[in-house]
Amino acid sequence: MPRLANSVHHYDIRVSDNDHWTATGLVNGKSILLIIGGGIAAYKSLELIRRARERGARVRAVLTPAAQQFVTPLAVSTLCEEKAFTELFDLKDETEIGHIRLSRDADIIIIAPATANLLARMANGLADDLATSVLLAANKPILAAPAMNWQMWENPATRRNLARLRADGLHFTGPAEGAMACNEWGVGRMAEPAEILDAAEGILNAEAGPLKGAHVLITAGPTHEPIDPVRYIANRSSGKQGYAIAAAAAALGARVTLVSGPVALAPPANVRLVRVESARQMLEAVEAALPAEIGIFTAAVADWRAADEHAQKIKKLGKAKAPTLTLAENPDILRTVARRASQRPPLVIGFAAETENIVDYAKKKLAAKGCDWIVANDVSAEIGVMGGDDNQVLLVTNDGAEGWPAMGKDEVAEKLMQRAAAFLRDKRSGLAAAAAE
Ligand code: CTP
Questions:
Q1: Domain, as residue range, for 64
Q2: Would you say residue 99 has pLDDT above 80?
Q3: Residues 354, 266 share a domain
Q4: Residue 15 Cα, ligand 1 centroid: separation in angstroms?
Q5: Residue 37: which of 82, 89, 76 has the closest Cα?
Q6: Is 301's C-beta closer than 6 angstroms to any atom of ligand 1?
Q7: How many domains does the chain have?
Q8: What is the CATH number for 13?
């Protein structure tokens, strides 16, 4: 339901008065092509230009006809210190630069604000003005910062267009929930300029990352095994380590599929999230996501499920008659994938939670599961790994065991993915060398 905002909103246009810009950040030296759509959030595009230039980026901007109702080409070109582009059929522009070169010259294209109309035109491949022609001709990553009324955002037509654009590889940042220009409240406010630039930097980083082009498949979280429609068997896994690995893999440029059991975590950016509940659903989702170059199995999959799932809620039958739960073994997802005859990922990594004899048990697990690496950790209560933010692991391979110092789960994720990227690189160059012989 819409909530009416209870006060008048003052849109705060903060244009920095610091004229001695110091270039910092990953967009430093990069060229951004900014497409400004026609919505009230267009005023924030001016601040976006300032912030991008502070970080050392060159910014060229294209304004749609509707955008020019909100900000003027003069204001935009003054901040860019470049001509602002508005017309598709401007012959002078076509001889000087042309709409194809506009997109070719950029390292990244940012659409801010990305209105419902602009997204709809893009989703359908239209090229009926300069902005959409540039976007259709683009060969660079595109980041869209949607901004629209909450009801337009929720409209099934917009949802369809977003799904299509996501499948086409478009990146998104926002929108956020908050007060809207129309005096309503909801999801549809454009992300802040700093967030948009952070997202752009993440994308540029990934473009140059060592896992660019690789598909990384990750399982995370617990599984819930239904007993009846209201009860289930679960465990205390938070999913944090798997989510951190997914984020680290995406940051290194991988295409990531994260198959997650029920957790209370926000999905990492630029990751395809497949939500499942039970172990059997998790296995199905994992197999459907193959092939992958790397499979990482962090999920705390329930070893057993209720042998008979009751269709109706089990009723109490009096004190003497507590029901008996019969368990059946769940499929071992890691083992199934590691032992596949076809589509086995070249690198399969399992996790092992132990409370004693860690290296010994991990080595046995490596052999029993048929995986390449095991990341083993001590989950005894005094270490506090389960649900915590830190982890202390041992990387166990066929070559031996290597202890890593205690560090954050984010750092474990980053180190593991760097290792995995190096492994893939060596494997690829080994294959290339063998082929050349
Ligand atoms: N795993 C899985 N599917 C299962 C069980 C486990 O994919 N049904 C994966 C986990 O994601 C993890 C590894 O296997 O990568 C853990 O193996 P497991 O044998 O379950 O180890 P523990 O949980 O430590 O159990 P135990 O020591 O009791 O064998």
A1: 3-207
A2: no
A3: yes
A4: 54
A5: 76
A6: yes
A7: 2
A8: 3.40.50.1950
